[in-house]
Amino acid sequence: MNIRAIIEWDEESQAYSATCPELNFVSSFGETKQEAIRNSLENSIV
Fold first, then answer.
1. pLDDT in tens, 4-21
2. Count of alpha carbons within 13 Å of 31, Cβ hemisphere only?
3. Residue 24 neighbours by CB under 8 Å, 6+ apart
4. Residue 34 in contact with residue 28, Cβ under 8 Å?
5. I need a labelling partner for 29 at 20 to 30 A (CA). Which of 1, 4, 8, 21 fits?
6. What is the DSSP string of 1-46?
């Protein structure tokens, strides 16, 4: 299964957000793109 992550820079919070449409639009933030993706995937497992 391929899972897309839509990565966006949030100027207000000075962090990246990652949203995964295939996981019911789970989203998370991180200081780096990789951290935002990892946090989103971890949140989807819970």
1. 889 999 999 999 999 988
2. 0
3. 44
4. no
5. 1
6. -----EEEEETTTTEEEEEEGGGTTEEEEESSHHHHHHHHHHHHH-
pTM surpassing 0.90?
Answer: no
Beta-bridge partners for 10: 15
* pLDDT tens-digit readout, 25-41: 888 999 999 999 888 88
Q: What residue spans define the domains of the chain?
A: 6-45
Buried b (16+ CB within 10 A) or exposed e, 4-42: ebeeeeeeeeebbbbbbeebeebbbebeeeeebbebbbe
